[in-house]
Design brief:
Blueprint: E1 3-6, E2 16-22, E3 29-30, E4 35-40, E5 45-49, E6 54-59, E7 66-68, E8 72-77, H1 79-83, H2 91-94, H3 151-158, H4 160-168, H5 173-189, E9 211-212, H6 214-223, E10 238-239, H7 241-259, H8 274-289, E11 292-300, H9 302-313, H10 324-338, E12 344-346, E13 351-353, E14 359-365, E15 368-370, E16 373-374, H11 382-397, E17 411-415, E18 434-438, E19 442-448, E20 451-465, H12 471-486
Parallel strand pairs: 9-10, 14-17, 17-18
Antiparallel strand pairs: 1-8, 2-4, 2-7, 3-6, 4-5, 6-8, 11-20, 12-13, 14-15, 14-16, 18-20, 19-20
Length: 493
């Protein structure tokens, strides 16, 4: 009997993935744990091993298609079954949507890479109604609705509420209708009930005034936005500044899409999916959900450059890639130890200060921005930190970072120096409260002991979640990172 392999959840809650490349073909023999397919999730590229041994009967999903977790993607069976199986991906779907997929026997369910097991669906047993007798003609249509009082009072009076009121009032239908009418008017005013079909008013329904603070109302007037159109996420249905800005961004996107002709051959359309889609969602959530405060400082990194040269020449670091990023990473770890509140997570109820550092390194890859992190970086020696940074960036740029390596980061570094940029205002990684941008190191004139001399100078830029990190703490933390770049010997203290 054919075995159906469904797309598993490979990333702790991921809901979909794109089929990048099949490693097998119909008719090919496979063994357990042989790589079947390469998929791209919102976080990384993952190879899926086979939970079955046998012959590939059919590839159920073609390359380039994004499917949800639990979707059947490949069928494996015996060589005899392969002789009568379709040859290409997606062939099963061509026969019609109602075609049933073969199911694996319960005792042969896969133990490897099968993903979460779906809960069984139980359906209520259908009770057949009485069949019409031989001498009775079937009804031509639904029975006529009995006469009823008009409006909501009539509906409520006929329903359970009216029955209860009538019984409680000694069977007086007039009193029941009166009380039911009052309840209907209250429910209608509060938006609980909808009017019955056919009783809608001729004009548009009245719009309730939006709840918003005066600064938000003023900003809405400046943007030309009707607050009644803005979805509210604040307490008691209040519209926040973030709600207004997010709505304005959606309006701009809709306007941009309407302004682009659908048939213009000069416009390239790139589907938003995978890493790009996840990055966009995270950046919007961070930019509009966390109030960013930014600080900048110029740093004389001459002694950092000398320190890097000495490490490269040391036999202890032979074969290890040593860059100024290593010194910055160590400086961030040193400053976090002195100011642990920058290594935290904000929740609506509490601030979670973490006394461990999963140091994130933002890496630009062909697939988009990735932020893998070094787990427990505070426990690494300088050489171990250098090796970890090299492995982290190399794996990310090759697109082989695993989802677990990008989760639970606590603070992030983004190195924009290789791009020739001096500084920037980075967006905080969701779930964190601080990020440091490391600019390029260039020779610039610098005043030393009253004389202008050429020095290696860089600029640090930091963004902080102002709900957790005040301006004073942000300044002291950034200044401590700069102190280490100016004098790496302080790491020996």
């Amino acid at each position: 009997m054919p075995q159906i392999f469904e797309l598993p959840d490979v990333g702790e809650g991921l809901t979909e993935a794109e089929i990048l490349a099949w490693r097998v073909a119909p008719g090919e023999s496979v063994r357990i744990n042989q790589v079947l397919v390469e998929i791209e999730t919102a976080k990384s590229v993952v190879e899926l091993p086979s939970p079955y041994a046998g012959t590939v009967l059919e590839l159920l999903v073609p390359e380039g298609r994004t499917v949800e977790v639990g979707t059947p993607i490949i069928a494996v069976g015996s060589p005899e079954e392969a002789a009568s199986a379709p040859a290409g991906p997606g062939a099963a779907g061509d026969a019609g949507e109602g075609a049933a997929q073969p199911a694996a026997a319960e005792d042969s369910r896969p133990l490897v890479g099968s993903g979460p097991k779906a809960d069984p669906v139980r359906r209520r047993r259908r009770v057949p109604g009485p069949s019409p007798t031989a001498g009775t003609a079937p009804a031509a249509g639904p029975p006529p609705e009995p006469a009823r009082p008009a409006g909501w009072s009539g509906r409520l009076a006929r329903g359970p509420l009216g029955a209860g009121l009538s019984a409680g009032l000694g069977g007086g239908l007039g009193a029941a209708q009166e009380l039911a009418g009052r309840a209907a008017r209250i429910a209608e005013d509060r938006g609980v009930w909808r009017r019955p079909r056919g009783e809608e008013p001729a004009g548009p329904p009245p719009r309730r005034p939006a709840l918003a603070k005066p600064p938000v109302r003023m900003a809405a007037r400046d943007l030309g936005i009707d607050l009644a159109d803005v979805p509210a996420t604040g307490a008691a249905g209040q519209i926040t500044k973030q709600d207004l800005l997010a709505h304005a961004a959606r309006l701009r996107e809709q306007g941009a899409r309407r302004a682009v002709p659908a048939d213009d051959a000069r416009i390239e359309r790139i589907p938003v999916r995978g890493v790009r889609k996840a990055t966009a969602q995270n950046m919007v959530r961070s930019a509009f959900g966390a109030p960013h405060a930014s600080v900048f400082v110029d740093v004389d990194a001459t002694r950092t450059m000398e320190f890097v040269r000495r490490l490269r020449a040391s036999p202890d670091y032979e074969g290890v890639k040593v860059t100024p990023l290593l010194v910055l990473a160590k400086a961030v770890l040193w400053a976090v130890e002195r100011h642990p509140q920058v290594n935290a997570t904000w929740t609506d109820e509490e601030i979670l200060v973490k006394h461990f550092v999963h140091l994130g390194i933002a890496a630009a890859t062909p697939r988009g921005l990735m932020v893998p992190n070094l787990k427990d970086a505070q426990d690494l020696s300088l050489r171990e930190l250098a090796e970890g940074l090299e492995q982290l960036t190399t794996t990310a740029r090759a697109g082989r970072t695993q989802p677990a390596d990008m989760q639970n980061g606590t603070i992030t570094i983004t190195n924009i120096g290789p791009l020739g940029l001096d500084t920037g205002t980075p967006i905080i990684n969701p779930g964190e409260v601080a990020i440091i941008a490391f600019g390029s190191i260039k020779q610039k004139p610098w005043v030393v002991d009253g004389a202008v001399v050429p020095r290696w100078v860089t600029t640090l830029g930091g963004s902080f979640d102002h709900r957790v990190v005040d301006g004073d703490l942000a300044g002291r933390f950034t200044a401590d990172v700069a102190r280490i770049l100016e004098e790496p010997a302080l790491l020996l203290d």
